[in-house]
């Protein structure tokens, strides 16, 4: 008997290693923010008060490269010829120390979210939650082995200098880290501006 399994409607998690060189100027700025301008969250990681980090000129090269990968995401994943561009709306720094994590959450008022890793820890991951957990795989928790079809959560390995892009409605978290080193990441949100849809078909929108 011949059979096959087809993965229907997969959720994209785009990963890329960036070429931008992070130098001492960047690192000094990042640590200055950590020491002077963060929101302190008990038992969770810390976040920069500044939610437009990429507007600082020292990150011009990084921002330019991020925009190039957003073009790839649009052309290869969204695959649309509509006359619009993806742009970064907000960006901020996250700092996670030993025995800290980041709660399960999703990002509102955006269509794509991204994370760039300035510094990672051993066996670092970003963990995503299945959009709809209540399904036939979870009646009574009968599964003996987790796989991409039956899992409720999936941990994607990440490393220093790497970018991850994903749909903003996808819930994600950072598991509590046990490493003595600090995990430092840049998070950002993306929306679009331009023209989409067809005027004659009454589905035109320009932003």
The number of strands is: 12
Query: Largest beta sheet, briefly?
Result: 8 strands, antiparallel
Broad CATH class: Mainly Beta
Shape label: globular
How would you classify the helix and strand content by structural class? Answer: alpha+beta
Return residue spans where pLDDT drops below 50 for at least 5 consecutive residues.
none
* Helicity level: 10-25%
Taken in chain order, the helices and strands follow as EHEEHEEEEEEEEE
Find the CATH superfamily.
q2cbj1_9rhob like domain
The total tally of domains equals: 1
Radius of gyration: 19 Å
Question: Which range does the strand content fall in?
Answer: 25-35%
Descriptive report:
The protein has 207 residues and is of the alpha+beta class. Helices cover 15% and strands 33% of the residues. The protein is built from 2 helices and 12 strands, in the order E-H-E-E-H-E-E-E-E-E-E-E-E-E. It has helices at 24-36, 60-78, and strands spanning 14-17, 38-39, 46-48, 84-96, 102-105, 112-119, 125-129, 153-157, 162-167, 172-174, 183-196, 205-206. Strands 1, 2, 3, 4, 6, 9, 11 and 12 form an 8-stranded antiparallel beta sheet that branches. A 4-stranded antiparallel beta sheet has the order 5-10-7-8, with no helix packed on it. The longest helix has 19 residues, at 60-78. The mean pLDDT is 91.
């Amino acid at each position: 008997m011949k059979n096959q399994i087809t993965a229907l409607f997969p959720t994209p998690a785009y990963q890329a290693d960036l070429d931008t060189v992070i130098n001492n100027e960047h690192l000094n700025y990042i640590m200055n923010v950590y020491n002077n301008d963060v929101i302190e969250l008990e038992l969770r990681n810390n976040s920069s008060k500044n939610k437009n980090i990429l507007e600082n000129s020292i990150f011009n090269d990084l921002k330019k490269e991020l925009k190039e990968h957003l073009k790839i995401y649009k052309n290869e994943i969204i695959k649309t010829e509509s006359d619009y561009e993806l742009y970064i709306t907000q960006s901020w720094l996250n700092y996670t120390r030993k025995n800290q994590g980041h709660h399960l959450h999703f990002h509102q008022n955006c269509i794509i979210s991204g994370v760039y890793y300035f510094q990672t820890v051993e066996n670092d991951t970003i963990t995503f939650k299945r959009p709809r957990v209540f399904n036939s795989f979870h009646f009574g928790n009968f599964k003996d082995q987790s796989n991409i079809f039956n899992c409720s959560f999936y941990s994607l390995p990440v490393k220093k200098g790497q970018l991850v892009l994903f749909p903003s409605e996808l819930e994600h978290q950072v598991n509590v880290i046990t490493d003595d080193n600090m995990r430092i990441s840049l998070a950002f949100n993306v929306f679009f501006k331009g023209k989409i849809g067809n005027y004659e078909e009454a589905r035109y929108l320009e932003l």
